[in-house]
Design a protein that fits this description.
Helix content is about 30%, strand content about 35%. The chain is α+β, with helices and mostly antiparallel strands. Among the domains are: about 1-35; about 90-168, no CATH class. A 4-stranded antiparallel sheet has the order 6-7-8-9, with no helix packed on it. A 3-stranded antiparallel sheet has the order 3-4-5, covered by helices on one side. The chain has a two-stranded antiparallel ribbon with strand order 1-2. The longest helix is centred in the N-terminal third of the chain and has 36 residues, at about 1-35.
Amino acid sequence: MMERSRRHRGLLTLVGWLGATVLATAVTLAAVSSIGSGIFGDAAGPLDQGEVEQALATLTPAETASPEPEPTTAAPGTGSTTGTPEASPPASVKPEVITSPGGNVLAQCVGGRVELVSWSPAQGYHVDSVDRRPSRTAEIEFEAEHRDVEIRVRCVDGVPEATVDVDD
């Protein structure tokens, strides 16, 4: 009789353990599923090229223009006390997206000078160096373990034009 109750207790322990395992697995899968799609619905994913161009097309010129520079103050004894730098010509109609195997770059022309507005490395790449300031040419280099991608951008007729060099 004692042996039977011991087997009964062992069987109940095993069934309880299996039930707890199944319940824990179900709760974990529900939590992961909720995180994957967001707590309140589908999560926003990365934009493709068409979606980026569509979003850029909806920007107004005020949203794409560079911020106005702050007034400058001359050094003591130079005559002028305050002044506003020369206004730069308006930006190109819209920033251009430049794609490469190493990542994407958003560039715009301002008064004949190119400016890198933003960039996003491709998966597996990182930015090794960047010269984004408005100048005759702007450069960015994306680097991966065995590949470098260098992008040089300049303005041609007020539109960013890129040269992409891939070094394996």
